[in-house]
Design a protein that fits this description.
Order of helices and strands of chain A: EHEEHEEHEHEHHEHEHHHEHEHHHH
CATH topology of chain B: Heat Shock Protein 90
Number of domains of chain A: 3
Strand order of the largest sheet of chain A: 6-5-8-9
Radius of gyration of chain B: 15 Å
Structural class of chain A: alpha/beta
Oligomer: heterodimer
CATH architecture of chain B: 2-Layer Sandwich
Distance between the termini of chain A: 87 Å
Largest sheet of chain B: 6 strands, antiparallel
Structural class of chain B: alpha+beta
Strand content of chain B: 25-35%
Largest sheet of chain A: 4 strands, parallel
Radius of gyration of chain A: 27 Å
């Protein structure tokens, strides 16, 4: 299994080599090389920012097509709670669940149901691990990947419990085997996802050896197929709901923390805000907080790049949907979960190291600081790196040269062409005096 | 920031501006990022960034700013925090956990809990305070890279 996997691909024919994505990337993972955007795999954390910003739609999220349903004898849809926030006038989640069956899935298993079990497990974990406070949520794969490469001191604070979708996949397969009598491999567990980061989670999971999820579908692909069946489903929805307020709340920022039934938390979303919180957390600037909920996307999962609706409208819709719902429908005493913890320890990956050893690093840091003084400091991005400092680091790593800087190059050209311009000046003078003579 | 290359080591210089809480912590954050790029162990980074952050905040609260010089060598990271502030009248008292002379307006921002100097001592391997009343204070802290 690859140590670093990305769910973002480039359509080279659409990429114009502009600087939008390199400037937006929170880990400075993208460079424009030979007129095309290139992602440095080990820096990328699958946040989706480059997909959002690319006006040419050259950045493509990876996910499975609906055709994957044909690969299995029996399919189970795992709808993310954010799916319910996509529809107008939805007052009953069962309508969406029933429509998923009408659309062709053999069964559905709400991820929000598993989320309620994870909330229960988290409450216990937080209560019994005061020495690790604040505990940082690990449900967003992008956050886990960010901490893995940039915040080594925070790794012990991560909640070592599998994300709801993984628990849902396990429970769904078990149920499907029992109900269909088929072999486990004949059953397709298909997650309907708001974001491509979950694709990375499935293809290269960090804290388990293998995910139980067989495919990741995009909410935006499934959405149009649900609209007509939902009209039929509304007439008599099947009783497929296994979650209440807590589970559905997970679709928006603050939902996971809300499920802990404690006031001692903060919830932040959006890459820039999340990084700010992690920086401060690393410097031990917060005290007395039990839990930190972090989501890469603004608004939480409803803000994922595979969704249809505006994240804040989706938030409002989710709130309306579960306003009068029961607090929770899934409980550990009736739905026990075997081994819900991480199987593997998360290892720090120091991908941003400049040198191979300390002495080498000292030389390279000095080189970077030196280069930063020479470079113009405009951060124009024309060299293909997002900032002058990033270019300096690329040069120190041997991946770029000072001449990649347009300003440096311009100065250089001015220097080497100055003899010509002097000649030109002399020539102009001569011409002018000749003309003067003629007139006289 | 100014850098002098004297091998083998990195010298980083920062100016801490007075009474500007919004900029306090910039120097320690910058040092933290450089240490990460150098592959220094996370534990050492944690000690340096917390001790330096506390020192930086102290300079803003008590001393009208000052300057910081950080020297990174293969053996250790040394931080020299120098200011022209009022000096510390009773160093022993200032080192006590919870003892604070920070004004009320600073405390209302969540600073001035009287943990600055004690934390700086706890998180570093060596700490020396040179202070003269009415002249200024220089705090020298070292964290060893083992």
């Amino acid at each position: 299994m690859a140590k670093f996997y990305n769910s973002v691909r480039l359509d080279e024919s659409l990429c114009k080599g502009c600087i939008n994505c390199i400037k937006r990337c929170p880990t400075e993972a993208i460079r424009v090389r030979n007129g095309k955007a290139v992602i440095r795999k080990e820096f990328c954390i699958d946040c989706g920012e480059c997909i959002r910003i690319c006006q040419n739609h050259a950045k493509l999220p990876t996910y499975d097509s609906l055709d994957i349903m044909k690969n299995y004898k029996y399919t189970v849809a795992l709808p993310a709670p954010s799916l319910y926030g996509q529809f107008n006038n939805l007052y009953d989640a069962r309508v969406v669940l029933t429509a998923l069956k009408l659309m062709g899935f053999d069964d559905v298993y709400e991820v929000s149901g598993a989320a309620e079990l994870v909330s229960e497990l988290s409450r216990e974990y937080v209560r019994t691990h005061e020495d690790q406070w604040p505990i940082i949520s690990s449900a967003c794969p992008t956050i886990v990947r960010l901490i893995r490469i940039r915040f080594p001191n925070l790794i012990p604070h991560l909640l070592p419990i599998l994300p709801p979708v993984e628990i849902a996949a396990r429970l769904a397969r078990k149920k499907a085997v029992e109900e269909s009598g088929l072999a486990p491999e004949d059953i397709g567990i298909l997650f309907i996802s708001p974001c491509p980061a979950k694709v990375t989670y499935v293809k290269a999971p960090l804290c388990i050896d293998k995910s139980e999820i067989d495919g990741v579908l995009a909410i935006k692909d499934v959405y149009p197929h649900l609209l007509t069946p939902m009209k039929q489903a509304a007439l008599g929805p099947e009783n497929l709901a296994i979650s209440g307020k807590i589970g559905i709340g997970w679709g928006s920022t603050g939902g996971e923390a809300g499920g802990l039934l404690s006031d001692s938390y903060l919830a932040a979303d959006g890459m820039e805000n999340v990084i700010h919180v992690l920086e401060d957390l690393e410097d031990e600037k917060f005290h007395d907080l039990q839990f930190i909920e972090l989501n890469a996307c603004s608004g939480g999962c409803v803000g994922g790049v595979l969704t249809v609706e505006n994240p804040y409208i989706a938030q409002a819709k989710l709130k309306r949907l579960h306003k009068y719902d029961v607090v929770a429908r899934s409980h550990l005493d009736t739905t026990p979960v075997k081994d819900p913890g991480w199987q593997n320890k998360l290892e720090y990956e120091p991908v941003f190291n400049l040198g191979d050893n300390l002495l080498d690093s000292i030389i390279k840091i000095n080189l970077v600081e030196d280069l930063c003084k020479r470079l113009p400091g405009l951060d124009c991005g024309s060299c293909g790196a997002p900032t002058c400092k990033a270019l300096a680091e690329d040069i120190a790593r041997g991946l770029a040269s000072e001449n990649d800087c347009v300003q440096v190059m311009r100065e250089y050209l001015k220097q080497i062409t100055s003899p010509f311009s002097m000649l030109d000046r002399d020539f102009q003078k001569e011409k002018a005096s000749e003309e003067k003579e003629k007139k006289v | 920031m100014d850098v002098q290359s004297s091998t083998p080591g990195v010298v980083l210089k920062y100016v801490v501006s007075p009474n500007d809480f919004t900029r306090a912590g910039e120097a320690s954050s910058n040092v933290k990022n450089i240490l990460k790029q150098m592959g220094i162990s996370p534990d050492v980074i944690r000690k340096v960034s917390i001790a330096m952050y506390e020192g930086e905040i102290n300079m803003v609260i008590h001393a009208n700013g000052g300057d910081i010089t950080v020297t990174i060598t293969p053996e250790k990271i040394e931080m020299v925090l120098r200011d022209d502030g009022p000096g510390i009248p009773d160093v022993e008292k200032a080192m006590q956990a919870g003892y604070s002379t920070a004004p009320e307006q600073v405390r209302s921002l969540g600073f001035g809990a009287g943990m600055g100097l004690p934390n700086m001592k706890n998180y570093t391997d060596e700490m020396k305070i040179d202070t003269v009343l009415g002249v200024g204070t220089t705090v020298t802290m070292s964290v060893y890279i083992s």
